[in-house]
């Protein structure tokens, strides 16, 4: 069981607060950047919409961008790097990971509804031409059961170790899928600067995964486990 104890020596207080503020600032900047995309890089799909359809599509785009950022954050929280654990405690990271999972689900459902309804639900994007939308459907059909299984794991009597192994692989898969989906489905991401920004974020996440995992493997004996079975 997680005690929420800081696993290695704490930072001197002043520095801890400074790093906390910096971490929160990076998070807020990522959200602000993501939310500005549908306004600064407006898509042609918006030009042809009026009134409530336009508002719905724009809100759907915002929900998609937020879901993307929250998915990247979700992996960062799950990695439980020693740096973040010392900054916020392991228990807080785990709590935020759980809450963030629910937000991702809500945002994904809102995105799908708000993007599809203005186009007409009888006009669903199936077929080879719409492969980026179908990547979104695959992503959605993995994401929702994943969130439900995590939330109701004990009620569903899922074996903890098996659930965790599957959860980890699917976690990496959904981040890969959302990156491909956003890059190829959205006209906003036809802009080179946005492609570079998203791929840089994805690369930074990969580096984090490799480095943190290596540190984790090297010191797994010293770390407390954040979940209970
Ligand atoms: C049934 C599943 C899905 C469908 C049919 C779908 C469809 C679309 C469409 C049509 C767009 C382009 C909107 C436009 O440019 O006007 C889009 C964009 C996007 N989607 Fe999805 N999507 C699905 C699931 C998801 C999920 C589950 C996520 C994230 C968890 C997601 C994240 C995004 C992002 C980040 C964008 C780029 C922002 C934007 O310009 O809208 N999508 N999606």
Descriptive labels:
single chain; 229 residues; mainly alpha; Four Helix Bundle (Hemerythrin (Met), subunit A); 8 helices; 74% helix; binds protoporphyrin IX containing FE
Explain the overall architecture.
This protein is an all-alpha fold. It has a single domain, classed as Four Helix Bundle (Hemerythrin (Met), subunit A), CATH 1.20.120.1770. Helix content is about 75%, strand content about 0%. α3 (about 50-80) crosses α7 and α7 runs antiparallel to α8. Residues about 1-5 and about 225-229 have low confidence and may be disordered. The site of protoporphyrin IX containing FE (HEM) has 29 residues, from α3, α5, α6 and α7.
Short description:
The chain has 229 residues and is mainly alpha-helical. The protein has helices at residues 13-40, 44-47, 51-79, 82-88, 90-116, 131-151, 160-185, 192-218.
Q: What layout of secondary structure does this protein have?
A:
Elements: H1 13-40, H2 44-47, H3 51-79, H4 82-88, H5 90-116, H6 131-151, H7 160-185, H8 192-218
Helix pairs in contact: 1-3, 3-5, 3-7, 3-8, 4-5, 5-6, 6-7, 7-8
The chain binds protoporphyrin IX containing FE.
Protoporphyrin IX containing FE (HEM) is lined by residues 38, 43, 45, 57, 61, 64-65, 67-68, 71, 108, 111-112, 115-116, 125, 133, 136-137, 139-140, 143, 178, 181-182, 185-188.
């Amino acid at each position: 069981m997680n005690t929420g104890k800081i696993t290695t020596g704490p930072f001197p207080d002043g520095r801890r607060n400074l790093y906390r503020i910096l971490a929160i600032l990076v998070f807020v900047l990522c959200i602000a950047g993501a939310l500005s995309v549908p306004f600064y890089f407006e898509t042609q799909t918006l030009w042809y919409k009026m009134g409530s359809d336009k508002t719905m599509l724009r809100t759907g785009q915002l929900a998609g961008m937020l879901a993307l950022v929250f998915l990247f954050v979700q992996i960062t929280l799950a990695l439980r790097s020693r740096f973040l654990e010392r900054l916020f405690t392991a228990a807080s990271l785990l709590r935020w990971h759980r809450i963030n999972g629910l937000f991702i689900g809500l945002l994904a459902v809102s995105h799908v509804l708000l993007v599809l309804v203005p186009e007409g639900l009888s006009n669903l994007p199936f077929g080879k031409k719409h492969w980026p939308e179908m990547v979104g459907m695959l992503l959605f059909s993995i994401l929702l059961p994943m969130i439900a299984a995590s939330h109701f794991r004990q009620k569903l009597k899922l074996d903890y170790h098996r659930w965790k192994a599957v959860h980890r692989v699917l976690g990496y898969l959904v981040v890969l899928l959302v990156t491909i989906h956003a890059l190829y489905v959205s006209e906003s991401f036809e802009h080179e600067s946005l492609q570079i920004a998203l791929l840089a974020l994805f690369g930074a996440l990969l580096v984090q995964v490799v480095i943190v995992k290596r540190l984790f493997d090297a010191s797994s004996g010293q770390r407390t486990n954040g979940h209970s079975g």
